[in-house]
């Protein structure tokens, strides 16, 4: 079971987290073409190797964060709070 | 001795007079197929059977051939038996790993009617009756016969039978962290654990066997001048002296390596306990997070493949040594050794030393010379080098009684047609060693073929584990000890520990066979040629009855990939996962392909290493403990009133409150009528509640709901619908504005968690710029709905607040004291009646329920459950879970007018897609049966009347989502979806078809709001 470093809580077992798709996907503007929206909602890259992913520490601080992970070896390179997230007190 | 004393234990005819690590002072009684037998503490079931001369222990699963004991450990492919009785019956247990206990009940499998005389063995007699792919090829047509054929085949084929009663035993899970996990407590593992623990590491040392020590218990070796087991005892004492730092786990199989240093292991806590206490766990699943790991899992010996190699009495050479040395059992009295490498000759030496006759050693290599063969020759044992075992002979009951030895033709793959006969009741086979790489490879490492050592070795590129000893291909004892020491020291250094004084390496006896080097390399003889006339088949995988010919046939039919070969022939797919057979199987495939072994590769290694009981995986999470139960704060008060509860997700909700033997339908009818005509009380604490606060709270709600929230006045509530980003409805609920920057949101019971997560995603990922906080308050508030025309009068008795229509109109919200409790009061209605929802802090929930029941008594207040609640919302045409089914848009639900065109919200853009705005989409309608009596069941299909006599498939024009008897309106009503919706169908008749019941009920299509369509009652 992967050990995922939550930026707020530290390393925790994978069962406490859920995966939320690739990171860094911008939600299209409201009036963007329908094609952009379709791509945003339905299309996902399936990278082999290095990936930046969104994960949520649902059984902990409930914060979404970015996890840099290798999808082949499952090696974790780093994790980061989302832009705009506050530093925990 | 009195007449009632139990009979003297039967003599164990094959027990050796001396030696062995067994307690001869105590006799244990056990039964095999009903026969009473004895053994000693320290025995396994297999060694005790052999001590009693029992050689036939199983029938094979496809051909029902007689089978005996092949190995002495977890790799056992053959001796699968059922142990335990009744609910504790466990099939497919390897007799070689079952500790013998007093009173053990064991039975053979796959035999009918008797192990000795088995009807299914006829399938074997018919020879080529069942070649590989037999099922696929033979039973394709006619398909209707398959159920009958399957029933017969299932009786003949198969692996034991499952117990039919619930497992009476308890299982546990235990999490553990350690600096170093050492798997395998043989010479290398013991040295590694000792070295690391001395350096200060917290060490877990796990071994699958009952006694720690590995091969040192099975082999005749001298360490520091004493027997190997004495050195093991001294090391274990030294480890125990280190205290808590070291955890020794015998009888613990590490079954899987998972990500990031996570390992699972199964400890057999009480399997060997003759009388386990009722509160004792039977097995414990360890979930270990280790910073470093040493694998010292040893190696598994391979058999050789030749005609008749599956007969009882054909045994791995290392196992024969183990039975003689560790268990003091003679697995035979006249033993031939068939070895393709020098190390196997140790068996001839050990058997000879135990007084077992060894008429010959047969070795396919020509001109064999070396320390071990020479010592064997010096004992007067003929070494038949350049020869092979061509065939065997024997009987079903006694197994082997002789072998045929043929000379290999020089330089060719053939052998001379006529061989010599040698009487033998034991044939020990030594086909080389396969390092036990399962745990290493499970994490993705690719074992590398070593063409000289004829073995797969650890992947040097992958794997963070320290591999040492036999599993690293280091087979000589002194090398393995040193290798273990180095691994333990390396692990300690990797942990950042300062290496302390290294534990002393023991001196191995100079003339130990374990120290003798190899005179000449092993030969790669993967299958002995088959003589023109042979008694037996050449089995590669004796558990799955896969032969050399099956592999060749599969290859001819195009199964050239090792993964395909495995699935087509079932090679290596048994409970042993091919631990003894896979290498020969893929080597034969490589030969057939004309390629080297690395080009074929191995099949994928997957956890678990050995079979794991479902009980161990489930642990305590069984029965009522499989999930937590959520109860409303009013649960106890409702139970006292006779509520019948129903599970809803994790919740237990009152379904109805029956009186005097009422049926469900009668109770629901009474509750609905009482509420519609007087006043009812319903627990709605189950609804999800989310507190939304912050300067941007209204803007946030605007972005998650389809309708607008900025204009909502403080002290008002509004119905909201939220979509997923794909434009389909996600959830609905009423949200109230308590202050400019403070909203109280409700969600459906089922989606409370999903909505909370959805909101958090919006705030954290999509719009971090919004200054809003959300928190789930579902558990903080107890809530009731007080509904019915008399609800205001009850409420007036319970509060000083002005609850008149002017002061608290429909959708009004206020705070104050109700029944003496701090409360939020919402004038909202799900039933369609004049109604209020009262929220109090959860701790007051019980008091609120009891006081309202008391206050309402003079008004005939009637508690109602989820069933009546559902009925009233259907009558009123409110959508709920069956309508919000993940396929419906706001327009489908009749809520299209709520969709704001002035703002953006989640789902807005994709809701504009042509398919989601098609007027032909199924849309919400009401349905009333024309006979005024038939209840229209949810899930029913709707078809056009014109299609009444159309043969199937009949075009479907919609479906019923929710239906009820409609006690509040006097006739059944239902909600459903029809293509084109109300605009097309209002007033028309359709057929509501229930294919399972074979009914088709004419129903009239009406507007969904059947009860009080103008909404006068809820505004009263």
UniProtKB/TrEMBL annotation, chain A:
Pfam families: SoxD
GO biological process: tetrahydrofolate metabolic process
Source domain of life: Bacteria
Name of the protein in question: Heterotetrameric sarcosine oxidase delta subunit
InterPro entries: SoxD (IPR006279), SoxD_sf (IPR038561)
One Gene Ontology molecular-function label: sarcosine oxidase activity
From TrEMBL, chain B:
GO terms of biological process kind: tetrahydrofolate metabolic process
Keyword line: Oxidoreductase
Domain GCVT N-terminal: 634-903
Domain Aminomethyltransferase C-terminal per the UniProt entry, residue ranges: 924-1012
Pfam families: FAD_oxidored, Fer2_4, GCV_T, GCV_T_C, SO_alpha_A3
EC number(s) given by UniProt: 1.5.3.1
Domain SoxA A3: 536-620
Gene Ontology molecular function terms on file: sarcosine oxidase activity
Matches recorded under NCBIfam families: soxA (TIGR01372)
Family label: Belongs to the GcvT family.
PANTHER family membership: AMINOMETHYLTRANSFERASE, AMINOMETHYLTRANSFERASE, MITOCHONDRIAL
Protein name (Swiss-Prot/TrEMBL): Sarcosine oxidase subunit alpha
Organism: Roseospira goensis
């Amino acid at each position: 079971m992967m050990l995922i470093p939550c930026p707020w809580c530290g390393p925790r077992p994978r069962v406490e987290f859920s995966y939320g798709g690739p990171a860094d996907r911008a939600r299209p503007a409201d009036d963007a073409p329908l094609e952009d929206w379709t791509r945003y909602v339905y299309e996902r890259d399936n990278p082999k190797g290095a990936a930046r992913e969104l994960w949520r520490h649902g059984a902990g601080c409930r914060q979404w964060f970015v996890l840099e992970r290798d999808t082949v070896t499952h090696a974790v390179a780093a994790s980061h709070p989302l832009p705009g997230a506050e530093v925990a007190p | 001795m009195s007449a009632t004393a139990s009979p003297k234990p039967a003599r164990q005819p094959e027990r050796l007079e001396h030696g062995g690590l067994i307690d001869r002072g105590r006799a244990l009684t056990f039964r095999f197929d009903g026969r009473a037998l004895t053994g000693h503490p320290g025995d396994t079931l297999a060694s005790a059977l052999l001590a009693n001369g029992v050689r036939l222990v199983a029938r094979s699963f496809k051909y029902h051939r007689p089978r005996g004991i092949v190995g002495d450990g977890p790799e056992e492919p053959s001796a699968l038996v059922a142990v335990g009785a009744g609910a504790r019956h466990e099939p497919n247990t390897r007799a070689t790993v079952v500790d013998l206990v007093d009173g053990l009940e064991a039975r053979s499998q796959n035999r009918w009617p008797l192990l000795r005389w088995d009807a299914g063995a006829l399938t074997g007699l018919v020879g080529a009756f069942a070649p590989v792919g037999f099922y696929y090829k033979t039973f394709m047509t006619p398909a209707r016969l398959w159920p009958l054929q399957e029933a017969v085949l299932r009786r003949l084929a198969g692996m034991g039978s499952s117990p039919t009663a619930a497992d009476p035993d308890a299982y546990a899970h235990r999490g553990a962290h350690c600096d170093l996990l050492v798997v395998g407590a043989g010479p290398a593992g013991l040295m590694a654990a000792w070295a690391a623990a001395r350096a200060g590491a917290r060490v877990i040392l796990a071994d699958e066997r009952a006694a720690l020590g590995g091969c040192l218990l099975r082999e005749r070796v001298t360490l520091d001048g004493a027997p190997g087991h004495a050195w093991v005892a001294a090391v274990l004492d030294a480890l125990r002296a280190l205290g808590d730092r070291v955890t020794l786990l015998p009888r613990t199989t590490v079954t899987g390596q998972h990500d990031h240093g996570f390992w699972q292991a199964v400890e057999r806590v009480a399997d060997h306990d003759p009388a386990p206490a009722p509160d004792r766990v039977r097995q414990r699943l360890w979930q270990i997070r280790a910073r470093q790991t040493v694998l010292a899992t040893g190696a598994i010996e391979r058999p050789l493949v030749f005609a008749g190699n599956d007969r009882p009495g054909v045994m791995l050479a290392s196992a024969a040594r183990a039975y003689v040395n560790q268990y003091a059992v003679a697995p035979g009295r006249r033993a031939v050794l068939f070895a393709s490498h020098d190390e196997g000759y140790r068996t001839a030496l050990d058997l000879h030393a135990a007084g077992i006759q060894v008429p010959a050693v047969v070795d396919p290599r020509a001109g064999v010379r070396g320390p071990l063969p020479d010592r064997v020759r010096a004992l007067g044992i003929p070494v038949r080098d350049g020869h092979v075992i061509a065939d065997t002979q024997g009987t079903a009951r006694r197994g082997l009684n002789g072998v045929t030895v043929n000379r290999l033709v020089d330089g060719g793959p053939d052998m001379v047609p006529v061989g010599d006969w040698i009487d033998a009741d034991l044939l020990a086979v030594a086909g080389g060693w396969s390092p036990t790489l399962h745990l290493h490879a499970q994490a993705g490492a690719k074992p590398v073929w070593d063409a000289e050592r004829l073995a797969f070795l650890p992947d040097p590129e992958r794997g963070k584990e320290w591999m040492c000893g036999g599993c690293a291909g280091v087979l000589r004892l002194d090398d393995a000890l040193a290798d273990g020491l180095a691994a333990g020291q390396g692990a300690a250094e990797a942990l950042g520990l300062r290496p302390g004084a290294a534990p002393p390496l023991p001196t191995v006896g100079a003339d130990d066979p374990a120290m003798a080097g190899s005179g000449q390399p092993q030969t790669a003889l993967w299958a002995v040629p088959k003589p023109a006339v042979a008694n037996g088949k050449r089995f590669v995988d004796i558990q799955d009855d896969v032969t050399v010919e099956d592999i060749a046939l599969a290859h001819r039919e195009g199964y050239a990939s090792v993964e395909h070969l495995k699935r087509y022939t079932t090679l290596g797919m048994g409970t042993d996962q091919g631990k003894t057979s896979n290498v020969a199987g893929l080597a034969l495939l490589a030969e057939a392909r004309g390629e080297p072994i690395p080009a074929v590769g191995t099949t994928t290694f997957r956890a678990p290493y050995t079979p794991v009981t479902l009980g161990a995986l489930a642990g305590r999470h069984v029965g009522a403990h499989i999930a937590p139960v959520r109860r409303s704060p009013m649960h106890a008060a409702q139970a006292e009133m006779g509520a019948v509860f129903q599970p809803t997700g994790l919740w237990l909700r009152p379904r109805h409150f029956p009186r005097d033997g009422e049926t469900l339908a009668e109770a629901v009818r009474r509750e609905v009528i009482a509420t519609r005509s007087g006043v009812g009380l319903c627990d709605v604490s189950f609804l999800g509640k989310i507190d939304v606060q912050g300067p941007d709270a209204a803007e946030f709600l605007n972005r998650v709901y389809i309708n607008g929230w900025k204009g909502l006045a403080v002290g008002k509530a509004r119905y909201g619908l939220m979509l997923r980003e794909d434009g389909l409805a996600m959830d609905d609920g009423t949200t109230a504005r308590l202050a400019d920057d403070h909203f109280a949101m409700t969600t459906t019971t089922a989606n409370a968690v999903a909505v909370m997560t959805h909101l958090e995603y919006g705030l954290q990922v999509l719009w971090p710029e919004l200054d809003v906080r959300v928190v789930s308050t579902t558990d903080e508030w107890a809530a009731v709905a007080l509904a019915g025309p008399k609800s205001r009068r009850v409420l007036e008795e319970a509060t000083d607040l002005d609850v008149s229509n002017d002061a608290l109109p429909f959708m009004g919200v206020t705070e104050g004291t109700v029944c003496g409790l701090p409360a939020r009061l919402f004038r909202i209605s799900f039933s369609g009646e004049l109604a209020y929802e009262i929220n109090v802090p959860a701790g007051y929930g019980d008091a609120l329920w009891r006081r309202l029941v008391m206050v309402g008594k003079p008004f005939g207040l009637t508690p109602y459950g989820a069933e009546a609640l559902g009925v009233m919302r259907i009558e009123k045409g409110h959508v709920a879970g069956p309508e919000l089914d993940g396929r419906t848009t706001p327009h489908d639900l009749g809520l299209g007018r709520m969709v704001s065109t002035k703002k953006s919200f989640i789902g807005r853009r994709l809701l504009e897609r042509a398919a989601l705005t098609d007027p032909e989409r199924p849309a919400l309608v009401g349905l009333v049966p024309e006979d005024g009596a038939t209840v229209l069941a949810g899930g029913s299909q709707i078809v056009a009347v014109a299609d009444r006599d159309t043969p199937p498939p009949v075009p479907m024009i919609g479906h019923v989502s929710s239906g009820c008897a409609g006690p509040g309106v006097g006739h059944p009503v239902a909600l459903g979806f029809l293509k084109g919706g109300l605009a097309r169908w209002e007033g028309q008749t359709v057929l509501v078809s229930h294919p399972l019941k074979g009914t088709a009920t004419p129903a009239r299509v009406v507007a969904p709001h059947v009860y009080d369509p103008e909404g006068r009652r809820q505004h009263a």
